[in-house]
Amino acid sequence: MTPPMTPPECHGISVSTALWRDGWYQYARLLPSPNYGPRPASAQIDLIVIHSISLPPGEFDNGNVQRLFINQLDWEAHAYFQSIKGFEVSSHFFITRLGALWQFVACGERAWHAGESSYRGRKNCNDDSIGIELEGLEGGTFEAPQYETLAGLSAALLQAYPIAHIAGHEHIAPGRKRDPGAGFDWPLLQRSLALPARYFPAIS
Predict the structure, then answer these.
(1) Are 49 and 199 a contacting pair, CB within 8 Å?
(2) Which end of the chain has fewer beta carbons closer than 10 Å to its terminal beta carbon, N or C?
(3) In the Cβ-directed half-sphere of 57, how many Cα atoms lie within 13 Å?
């Protein structure tokens, strides 16, 4: 796996806090992706979108997700990869089963994680969201270290950006996507962040 890299100069939104440098989080391993673009000039970064991913599905800790996001996945390495061959995608962050945190796109830039989507009355959620991928299976459960890392990262994002909504891919692309799915513990995340229910999709 390519080692973490020093973040390049970035022309996105700059956040001047001890935790951030030009949209790069100081506690993440940095592996810049070529799959990003500028946000619209009017965009407000007010949404966190939580996803789940594993490549191949159900196999963990093999570096394939990182390779996918930097366009270095070997399409011939597994039969499943043929179904996603040529995809150019990215997320701002990826959290492994052990809670390790990777960042691929500066938060001021538009990562390619949401696809066709709509939430809180707005379409094209890539324009104004932060994408966080959790290593796991759609509908499956997640590990305690992942929730700990997710809560810490989300708290840092809440301090740095005008976050008003936290949702799953399934909520912004209903019928098309189902991740992170029923195994994700939304009440645990809400309690960890001490946020009111209005930040979240309907949860029980």
Answers:
(1) no
(2) C
(3) 11
Is 5 a member of any domain?
no
| CATH number, domain containing residue 58 | 3.40.80.10
What is the tally of structural domains in the chain?
Answer: 1
Q: Which residues are catalytic?
A: 133
Q: What is the pLDDT along the chain (204 residues), one digit of tens a residue?
A: 433 333 333 334 434 458 999 999 999 999 999 999 999 999 999 999 999 999 999 999 999 999 999 999 999 999 999 999 999 999 999 999 999 999 999 999 999 999 999 999 999 999 999 999 999 999 999 999 999 999 999 999 999 999 999 999 999 999 999 999 999 999 999 999 999 999 999 875
Beta bridge partners of 51: 133
87/43 Cα distance (integer angstroms): 25
Domain residues for the domain of 42 are 21-199
Domain-located, residue 15: no
In a domain, 7, yes or no: no
64: helix, coil or strand? helix
Instruction: Tell me if 140 is assigned to some domain.
Output: yes
Rounded Cα distance, 204 and 202, in Å: 7
